[in-house]
Sequence to fold (406 residues):
Amino acid sequence: MLKGKSIILGITGGIAAYKGAALCSKLVQAGAKVNVIMTESAAKFITPLTLQTLSRNPVHIDTFDERDPGVVSHIDLADHADLIVIAPATANAMAKLAGGHADDMLSTTLLAATCPILIAPAMNVHMYEHPAVVHNMELLASRGAMFVEPGTGQLACGYVAKGRLAEPEDIMAAIEAWFVRGGMLAGKRVLVTAGGTMERLDPVRYLTNDSSGKMGFAIAEAAQLMGADVTLVAGRTSVAPPAGVRLIRVESAQQMLDAVMDVFEESDIVVKSAAVADYRAVDISDQKLKKSGERLVLELERTTDILETLGKRKSRQFLVGFAAETEQVEHYAMDKLQRKNCDLIVANDVSREGAGFNGDTNIVQVFGAEGLIVSLPILSKREVANCLLELIAGRLASVEGTAHDS
Ligand code: PMT
Fold:
């Protein structure tokens, strides 16, 4: 699986740097081409010669130590990497990456890289829990960095607590899992909708909902990391969309319908996580509505149900809807699945703590024609996205397998 993959192993200055050597050895044995970049502090814990011997490649420490006049080393390394793994990652290394600093070979290469980054932190427990470190890790995660959590045990500083670098076997498992997922949706065109729609009442007022776009953005980003070509149709959102996807911004349910219909035919998978208005104003005032009287009655009319429209049109597309419910989740989810002709429905009970709108986590149950397929515990929206897309990829593969066989 790792054969021929180009991996940069960044080793930063903590006592766990010695485990970087074991990881390097495992990566090479698995067939990866490993280029090691050490910080100067890391070189105080373990010799570059050890890593050079294990990786069978020169070790990079100094940005200005240019050995090949034909290339600029940090750009060349960054351009050719399939994955960068930082193990161990100190608080300082993560702070530099979060802040965009480029003052040594590793930080400079990280800024030049466009490939995914896997970070395995290791430090004292109080450092690990410091708000600045927590903030930096959240920021890096929001930009797509993946993490292998530290373990709990005896720390070099004497504490028995969380902060030990994950074992090299666990970091290897995370790397292999990423490469497996990386190709799962290769060649697939995925259409994702995210955020809430806005239904104008006048030039300054509108009807909307609490959707932040986080769930849909996580799905779009995860699909892209699995190799898909992603189109993201996004309404009103409160977070930045993922980079590298084709983004179409819309406001109203009608605009979302139009944008979705434009790309539906060419899509293989459609995931409708957007919270779409069911009603819109019959008349949209050109001018700001003036106060008059104690009550104002707005006349609303039904919007087109986009998912239902797609369900009627679909030919080969794998169609996934969401269901935001507060009661009788299974009953309503199954009703939507059948009525809207979906292959899967992802139901979230938005009345539960940690589920639904706005937060970083969700609690979902996925239903298919056969009923409940999986009930996931509370997970980050990124993890929900990964689980959902793995399920979709598996189902699609078995459908395509059946089609090829017949
Ligand atoms: O964006 P976040 O803050 O991360 O929140 C995520 C979420 C709660 C918005 C998401 O997890 C979710 O549940 N999305 C669906 C919300 C919704 O509109 O549910 P619904 O049960 O009302 O609609 C069912 C399905 O029909 C949805 O796939 C919806 O996109 C679709 N629909 C609804 C109405 C309409 N006019 N057209 C549609 O396509």
In short: Residues 6-182 form a domain with the Rossmann fold fold (CATH 3.40.50.1950). The chain has two domains: 6-182, 189-405.
